[in-house]
Amino acid sequence: MNVVVAQEPSTAARGRPGGDESRARMIAASARMFAERSFDGVSVREIANAADVNVSAVSYHFGGKRGLYIAALEQLLEEMRPVGGPVIERIVAVMADGAPSVSALRDVACFVVRHILTKMLSGDLEPWVTQTVLREFQNPTTDYRPMLDERVLPLHKAMGKLTAASLGTEVDAPSTVLAAHGVMGQIMVFAAARRVVQEELGWSEIEPAQLETIIEAAIRGVLGALGLKSDPEAC
Amino acid sequence: MNVVVAQEPSTAARGRPGGDESRARMIAASARMFAERSFDGVSVREIANAADVNVSAVSYHFGGKRGLYIAALEQLLEEMRPVGGPVIERIVAVMADGAPSVSALRDVACFVVRHILTKMLSGDLEPWVTQTVLREFQNPTTDYRPMLDERVLPLHKAMGKLTAASLGTEVDAPSTVLAAHGVMGQIMVFAAARRVVQEELGWSEIEPAQLETIIEAAIRGVLGALGLKSDPEAC
DNA sequence: ATTTATAAAACAAGCGTTTGATTAAGTGGC
DNA sequence: GCCACTTAATCAAACGCTTGTTTTATAAAT
């Protein structure tokens, strides 16, 4: 996780410096631990050790363990922005000019699959970031509500528009919403099952060649599910 | 979760009775709690309260919290048997007579989708049972290894056979394995996202009519992804 | 002198497990 | 049939440890 330390404005701050760095280290260390072991599986002392701060720093800077947890989620939310943003923009753009052609729909569908899988499976995002998203998707909680509201559902809305245009159904029809979920399922399953896939195919890492194989398989499936000509080589 | 209490043989046991009932109640209460809040999020005292036993009963009967945890997982494993078993049998059966026809492949694919979704989304399995499976699929752990080895991977192997026959690819080719994952993703996404789907479509419960709508959408998507004629009404 | 941050120590609460006593059953001798 | 003994299960209390938070002192800056 890349954590940006806020640059102070030119007016000098008073007091002992270093709080920004400490807060950043605590957020970075804890975000990963919370993602991997969830809230109760991580102790304040472990976070403090990993972040190289005193154990009381968590209460001092964040008001307590839960405050740090919320701060870490907000950081994750920010990290997720480049995943769905471009997809939504591309889908909205292709719809802007009236009913898009089959060719245009295929191009968008190909882009969607390629972009999301590249973001999720290459080094851009750590695996546990996508794990956190998937867990929230599966079991929505109050804590992660913004993740759902601001990242997942808008992406789903956009996918619904692409699906409606491809299948010739109404955007808000249940069959469209469900088909869009099916399409997302075909993409997200590779994030969810990345370790299982690696084990089954004997891949120690997902290198660019393997990523391309996954993208191609996913494109074929998604085009097929959308009723578009499923020939990924044309992408 | 239906927990069966072992019937004692005709020879009477010595000692105070009731241990079987207490163990069953502890397993049932804890399985759900572990699924919802994972191991560290549940305390022995909470389990004891929910199961109406003394707190020391966990250590007495199971050797401790972790022993109970393992026992609960084994129970879940048993619960999952009727989900994948019939699917594997059906796929194996259709392959037994050489290359199946497209019509036969469609029938099997329809059955697979209908069976799995019916098991997962109707009252047959509690939502948190499927949540546990999905969590293990996403983040395989030592604890859940049998769930993966004995339930999930065999089902995936069978799905790979169906996929290879449908797409005309080699069973063990990476593209087949990945396409099979895509197909499973299209089905499992409805278990994973059941709460999100309910919220989006305004469904308070997934009644039989809604379940049928989901099944139909999933069948259409799966048939499309498998390159089979995607007309679910023919199922 | 003030403000901000850090550190060590302590606190109260909860944790999982153990201990010793009690209860509820069955068994065998008389 | 009654009683003593054995076995299995349950109970309340206690234990040692870990938890998140607070307190007080110290350090580093303006």
Task: Describe the fold and architecture.
Two copies of one chain form a homodimer. By secondary structure, the first copy, chain A, is an all-alpha fold. Chain A folds into two domains: about 20-65, Orthogonal Bundle (Arc Repressor Mutant, subunit A); about 75-235, Tetracycline Repressor, domain 2, CATH 1.10.357. Chain A is built from ten helices and no strands. Chain A has helices at about 20-35, 45-50, 55-60, 65-95, 100-120, 125-140, 145-165, 175-190, 195-200, 210-225. In chain A, helix 1 (about 20-35) crosses helix 2. The longest helix of chain A has about 30 residues, at about 65-95. Mean pLDDT of chain A is about 90; it is low at about 5-10. At the A-B interface, helix 6, helix 7, helix 8, helix 9 and helix 10 of A face helix 6, helix 7, helix 8, helix 9 and helix 10 of B. Chain A binds a DNA duplex (30 and 30 nucleotides) through helix 3.
